[in-house]
Amino acid sequence: MAKEKIHIKNRDIVVPGDLLAEGMAYLPSGKAFREDNKIYAATVGLISIKGRVIKVIPLAGKYMPKKGDVVIGRVTNMGYSGWHLDVNSPYNADLNIGEATREYIDLAKTDLSKYFDIGEYALAEVINISENKYIKLSTKKRPYRKLKGGNIIEVSPTKIPRIIGKAGSMIKMLKDSSGCDIIVGQNGIVWIKGTPEKEALVAQAIHRIEKESHTKGLTYNIKKMLGGKKK
Amino acid sequence: MKAGAPDKFIVKGKRLDGRKIDELRPIKIKAGVIKSADGSAYLEMGETTVLVAVRGPREVIPRHLAMPDKAYLNCVYDMMSFATPERNRPGPSRRSTEISKVMKDALSPAIFLEKYPKTKIDIYAEITNANAGTRCAAITAASVALADAGIEMKDIVASIGVGKAGGKLMLDLFEPEDNFGEADVPIAIMPRTEEITLLQMDGDLSKDELKKLIAIGKKACKEIYKKQKQALKKKFETEKEAKK
Q1: pLDDT tens, B211-243?
Q2: What are the b/e assignments for A177-200, b being 16+ CB within 10 Å?
Q3: Model ipTM value
Q4: Which among B113, B144, B243, B244 is the top mutation candidate for probing chain A, defined by the most A β-carbons within 10 Å of its own β-carbon?
Q5: CATH of span A151-228
Q6: Nearest-CA residue of chain A relative to B244?
Q7: Cα R_g (chain B), whole angstroms
Q8: Which of B35, B55, B146, B154 to mutate to test the interface with A (most CBs of A within 10 A)?
Q9: CATH topology of domain A5-58
Q10: Range of the domain at B80
Q11: Mind listing the pLDDT tens digit for each residue in B186-197?
């Protein structure tokens, strides 16, 4: 039998084609793949080893939608019975009337722009991705809605987990210390609403998190940044 | 012999630019140089310089090019008008169209195109200074840019030009050797499996010579491969260690 061997440590940075482990005892996860009895990395990423599972967490890349993701999209077009949204991914997303609201809409009488107009942002859930990559969205349930006012900023989708933090610690801290309403979409779009000064400050803080995402004591630094500029 | 050709390609055991027969030109690779692109790379190989931008995966335009099972890879090789000693006419040419196609074929086996159905990946390679081996430099830089864009790949493609000048087999030809030598052979491989993704030949070589050249090229590609990986790791590690 082939030898079992692991070639990397936890939190190592790997590049495509890097050999991670040999032997069938390990399992590839995330952006890792198996070829024969060896496991390689498929993208630039950070290693996370949990038992037998070797995971490559990507450090770059576009947003690829998954079922159940919460995303923020911009309405780009209106159809007879729904809207098209840009969700910062290679694929277009559709929001159908039936999925948009619980209300009854009489298509003959209502102007759809009453609900979402072109250029407006919506917080939505990905409910389905069809075989041919059509994304279906829904705004029917409670937190999903039109995002009125506020500011939109774009970040790399790979940095979203850091902005949210462990069990939401970072985002909670941002909200508490700035008093802003913040919503983070899985697709790398962040919505901030508060006073204009605070909005700008939070945007700065988020860009800093994105830039220094792997550093230690980041939560503390950001807290200092938000608190220090208060007066 | 053509006008302007040097009398000898090897003087006192050294090449015209002072290198040994099996020596590479100094290489410099930098990943992530263009902010607006999803991935980018800059590469210097002696006096040959190339800048590559990768955009995508993104929506396919025109729509009919979209494939339901995999991504459409679009490669554009272009030489800047100031890249050569004599100004060259900007815009696509017969030569650049061919090299674009060859680049696409050299890179596509390394990319998991099937992971991005109905999308398009654009690669724009601009030669900012040409001194032989531009297509190899473009391929080498493009695979770094692809990895920088976070596109899933089986391996990074490394490429090098080998050839024959003054009756000797040589590694990494530069301008006079390329123009007046007997033959030049650009090679691209996926170093991990040693799979050849590009092999062209311009000139006269015997079967044995070609075999030897491929072996020399493969060895050199592995050296370049290390530099490519270093460049990528450097970019992402500085991010990681910025303020530890």
Answers
A1: 999 999 999 999 999 999 999 999 988 766 554
A2: bbebebbbbbbbbbbbbbeeebbe
A3: 0.90
A4: B243
A5: 3.30.1370.10
A6: A215
A7: 18
A8: B154
A9: OB fold (Dihydrolipoamide Acetyltransferase, E2P) (2.40.50)
A10: 18-239
A11: 999 999 999 999
